Fold this protein.
Amino acid sequence: MLFLAREFPSARIRGVDPSADMVQAAGARVGLDPEGRVAFKQAGNRRLPFPDQLFDLVVIFAGRPAAKEIARVLRPEGHLVLVGAAPAGLLASARERLWRRRLPRTAI
């Protein structure tokens, strides 16, 4: 997540992880962030703790994407990036679910 903060210096970066330990470790890596640009919350991918249509970009590093939640928090012209090693069937399944929800996609 920190590389996103470096690449997009005016963006606010939000991360979630189901593990409280991982959230604490990520927060420790951020260090002092007086502007509150980077923050982490404990949550799973089935219920994201964010309002509807909040994000221009959603990046999933690992895990199973929850298409319904991605569709809910992503703005209409937003982008989705899936990163990580996953079985081809999982990505094909995610692509199909996202297509059914009519999320625009450039490449998955």
